[in-house]
Amino acid sequence: MDGNGRWAKSRGLPRLAGHTEGIESVRTVVTECARLGIGHLTLYAFSYENWARPADEIAALMQLLTEYLRAEKQELLDNNITLGAFGDISRLPEHAQTALSEVSEATSELTGMRLNLALNYGGRQEILRAAVRIAQGHGQGALDLSTLDEKVFSTYLDSFGQPDPDLLIRTSGEMRLSNFLLWQIAYTEIYVTDVLWPDFREEQLHEAIAEYQGRTRRFGRLD
Ligand code: FPP
C-alpha cells in the first residue's frame, strides 16, 4: 500500500493525512474484494523495516491501525470476513495487539474472505522464524528432516493453510518486492500501478483484476 506520503506531499499535507486517506482505500478494497468472492487478501500494513521511520509516524500508524480495527469490526462481521495477522505482532504496541486479538477472535468462526494484515512483517524474517522452529522441532525429535519438503516447510510460515497469492498489486509505481511474502510469491502475477494507495479504489482494483484475468499462467510449464 505504497504512496501515502507522496499523496499527502503533492497536496501540501502532512504524511499522516496520506495514511488517513489510505485507510479509506483499505476499507473500500477489503469490502470490494469480499464482494467479488476473493478468498484471501493480504495487506502489507507495516514492514519490519518500517520501524526505522520517525517515532511519531510509527505511533500514528499504530493508532490508525487500532482505530481501523475498532471501527471496522462490525463491517468485517457483516461481510463474513475473518481477520488474521502475518508477522511478529508481539512487538506492536499493547493497544494494537489487543484490538487485533479482539477482532480476530470475534471473526474466527466466519467462513468468507480471509483478511491478513502484515504487521511488523518481513519475508526474510518469516522464513528465518520458520527455519528456527524447524530446527527446534528436529532437535526435540518431533520432526524427521527427511520428510521436510516445500509443503511441510510452508506449514511453518505465517500463511499456514492458505494458498499462495495469485496476484500481487503494488501501488505508486515502485518496481520492488520490499521483503513481501518472498516464499509465497514464487509464481504470483505482479501488477504495478502508478496510482498512489490513497487513490486506489474500486475502479483501480477492477483494472488490476481485469489485467490479471488476461494473463496466461504457466507455472514454469509450456502452455
Ligand atoms: C506506505 O506509504 C504505507 C505505509 C508504510 C503504511 C500503510 C498503512 C496504512 C494505509 C494504515 C494502516 C493499515 C491498516 C491495514 C489499517 P509511504 O508512507 O511509504 O508513502 P511514500 O512512499 O509515498 O512516502
Key words describing this protein structure:
223 residues; alpha/beta; two-stranded parallel ribbon; 45% helix; binds farnesyl diphosphate
Measure the end-to-end span: 33 Å
Hey, roughly how much beta strand do the residues contain? 5-15%
Structural class: alpha/beta
User: Helical residue percent?
Assistant: 40-55%
Shape assignment: globular
Distinct ligands, ions and cofactors found in the model: farnesyl diphosphate
Largest sheet: 3 strands, parallel
**What is the number of helical segments per DSSP (H or I, 4+ residues)?**
7
Side-by-side strand order of the widest sheet: 1-3-2
Give the low-pLDDT segments. Answer: none
How many strand segments? 5
Write down the Rg. Answer: 18 Å
Order of helices and strands: HHEHEHEHHEEH
Mean pLDDT: 97
Write a structural description.
The structure is a single chain. The protein is α/β, with parallel strands linked by helices. The chain has helices at 4-9, 15-36, 55-78, 94-107, 123-139, 150-154, 202-213, and strands at residues 40-47, 82-86, 114-121, 167-170, 189-192. The protein has seven helices and five strands; from the N terminus they run ααβαβαβααββα. The strands form two sheets. The chain has a three-stranded parallel sheet, sandwiched between helices. Strand 2, helix 4 (94-107) and strand 3 (114-121) form a beta-alpha-beta unit. The chain is globular. The two termini are 33 Å apart. The mean pLDDT is 97.
